[in-house]
UniProtKB/TrEMBL annotation:
Homodimer. The gene is uppS. The lineage of its organism: Bacteria, Pseudomonadati, Pseudomonadota, Betaproteobacteria, Burkholderiales. Keywords: Magnesium, Metal-binding, Transferase. The active site is at D15, N63 (proton acceptor). This is Isoprenyl transferase. It is an enzyme of class 2 (transferase). Mg(2+) binds at D15, E195. The keyword Nuclease does not apply.
Length: 244
């Protein structure tokens, strides 16, 4: 039996934690805590399925405008995750990378992020990118600013290389849970050719079967990158390209 096509890089907008909690008369932060359990299970499942890169949207540049207790709850979750999860991830061959603007984070959190990255730097089974205080527009702007500062020409290649996610290939599959169908400033540049999958499930309910459903949908899609179906089915050989 042939193996289904597995995406190399999966990215997820983990939406629906707040609704999950509110429906249970719980504070929104309880939804984020439950979302953390889902994330842990999802990461394991990605590893088992042979996915090499998982990128998640944990805190957006816009999330600062949420109620203060929710923002501090998310910061606390991050601190707890660093202390509790990193030793485990280190043992499982996961390389953790934080992607986003660290400047507004506390000195203690910044040190924790750097330590987690250093502790897992030599791992290569799966790269786990946690987008924290991240926005797609922020990333494109910071990349352009970096090039301008160095006096380098701005091309697709140079800009792509200056982005915060330049250490991994673009996502093949972007999943959004929670029933909304938009990117919300996630991976704007990198989403150019990604397959999109929207799930009605709230993130805390996105289990292994739901992930498999998204992977099955991905495996059934044809990715054409601007070519025709015929070209995708029979890619041009170097000789064809010479003759053209
Ligand atoms: C969106 O749901 C979710 C977030 C803003 C946070 C996602 C965070 C986690 C899953 C926990 C992992 C966190 C860290 C710090 C590693 P929402 O609150 O917008 O849901 P709603 O649309 O139902 O209100």
């Amino acid at each position: 039996m042939t193996q289904p096509r597995i995406p190399h890089h999966v990215a997820i907008v983990m939406d629906g934690n707040g609704r999950w909690a509110t429906r249970r008369y719980l504070p929104r932060v309880a939804g984020h805590k439950k979302g953390m359990d889902t994330l842990r299970a999802c990461l394991r499942h990605c590893g088992e399925r042979g996915i090499k890169v998982l990128t998640v949207f944990a805190f957006s540049s816009e999330n600062w405008s949420r109620p203060a207790d929710e923002v501090s709850g998310l910061m606390e979750l991050l601190a707890v995750a660093l202390a509790r999860e990193i030793p485990q991830l280190r043992g499982e061959g996961v390389r953790v990378q934080f992607v986003g603007d660290r400047a507004p984070l506390s000195e203690k959190v910044r040190a924790g992020l750097a330590q987690a990255e250093a502790d897992t730097a030599s791992n290569n089974r799966l790269v786990f990118n946690v987008c924290f205080n991240y926005g797609g527009r922020w990333d494109i702007a910071q990349a352009a600013a970096k090039l301008a500062e160095r006096g380098e020409p701005i091309t697709e290649k140079s800009l792509g290389a200056a982005l915060a996610l330049a250490h991994v290939p673009d996502p093949d599959l972007i999943i959004r849970t929670g029933g909304e169908e938009r990117l919300s400033n996630f991976l704007l540049w990198q989403a150019a050719y990604a397959e999109l999958f929207f799930s009605e499930r709230l993130w805390p309910e996105f289990d292994a079967a739901a992930l498999d459903e998204a992977l099955a949908a991905y495996a059934s899609r044809e990715r054409r990158y601007g070519m025709t179906s015929e070209q995708v089915a029979a890619p041009a050989t170097p000789a064809d390209r010479k003759a053209a």
